[in-house]
Write a structure and sequence with these properties.
Distance between the termini: 31 Å
Number of helices: 9
Helix content: 40-55%
Number of domains: 2
């Protein structure tokens, strides 16, 4: 992060915002340092690259990692981009599954949601807007608990056995 900011500074882009794409177990484990390196220097956003994280960590650990990332970014008041395969089947085929609906509901906690293009993208955008609007009314009722930050170290020690098959 510091090297990137130094390079941007040499090019006259001292206040250019940065979006840090979190896509590896190392990035998950080092998120506090990544954010601290940039927060007082320039605007910062975090993209949770859930597809890459699922490959890196395994799908079960990706779910835990995305929750940890959401907690840390919320605590630091850093906006989040929720990325990878949100309503993708709907955007591409026009049909939607229950898991996609549940996944899209989680996106309510992010400031931005990235959708992939497809012939039914307008329907996907309308559906996502409706889901997020409905979920927003419920979020104040919930009080999830964050694990101690020591859990970040777990993401660096994961072996390749937790990755998805090729």
């Amino acid at each position: 992060m510091r090297a990137l900011m130094t390079e941007l500074d040499t090019r006259g882009a001292m206040r250019m915002p940065i979006v840090a794409k979190i896509e590896t177990r190392r990035a998950v484990a080092n998120l506090p340092e990544i954010m601290l390196a940039a927060l007082d220097q320039r605007p910062l956003g975090i993209m949770i690259a859930r597809g890459d994280l699922a490959v890196e960590l395994g799908p079960e650990r990706m779910i835990e990692a995305q929750e940890t990332l959401l907690w840390l970014t919320e605590a630091a008041h850093v906006p989040v981009i929720w990325a990878t395969q949100v309503l993708e089947v709907l955007a591409k085929t026009g049909s939607i599954s229950r898991p996609e609906l549940t996944d899209a509901a989680m996106a309510e906690r992010a400031e931005c949601v990235m959708l992939n293009k497809g012939p039914y993208i307008e329907r996907a955008v309308r559906t996502l807007a409706d889901i997020i609007h409905r979920m927003h009314r419920h979020q104040h009722k919930k009080s999830a608990q964050m694990d101690p930050l020591e859990c970040l170290a777990d993401f660096t020690s994961l072996g390749k056995e937790n990755t998805l098959p090729s």
